[in-house]
Amino acid sequence: MSMSVRGVARHFLSQTGPLSVYATFLSGVGGNPTLRARIESIARQEITFDVSECTYSWTARYEQIWSHVRVRVQLDPDTGISAATMATLRTTWENAIENRWSNRWSIGRPGEVACPITFDVQWITNNAHHLVRVQAGPARSNMTLWDTSDTGAVAAHEFGHMHGNPDEYTDANCSMRTPVNTGTVMDNNSNNIPQRLMQRLATNVGSNVL
Fold this sequence. Notes:
By secondary structure, the chain is an alpha/beta fold. It is built from 7 helices and 9 strands; from the N terminus they run H-H-H-E-E-E-H-E-E-E-E-E-H-H-H-E. The longest helix is centred in the middle third of the chain and has 19 residues, at 83-101.
């Protein structure tokens, strides 16, 4: 996880120009925090917003620490799906999600360090951003319903919804959808992550996608 000291100061502390690391981040803070821990605590945000696209609606939820996005997901397997199967799926899905979305773009502004946008999916059993039922596949999946035949590419597509991106494939129920047939992860589950899919993350911290 990389962070811009100047960027965090600018966005969260409203301080521009020359800055003192001690005076800006550590002065008056109790205990003996490291600079990194202090900057992380300042920059940590829980993001929640409603998304409405065509006939579909959902709530995006995630934690963002400057350019690092963490999504806590609770997987709830149907009866009959073994622990071994779930362990394999968790590994497959996590690797695909993080590899597909991370380190494609950075955020930054002139005079600030450009920080790669990275993603971390965490499988948890409480305090989840998203609850996902897992059913035996093959079956049709969506953001909250995955199946045991889902590939890592499918999981990466559904993960895109979790941080706010709508579908980009043609849908008979959504004749006015745009853009469509984009060849992106939100269209055909490809490895293509265009800049616009990262824009909200940069906007959250008052920065630009690079």
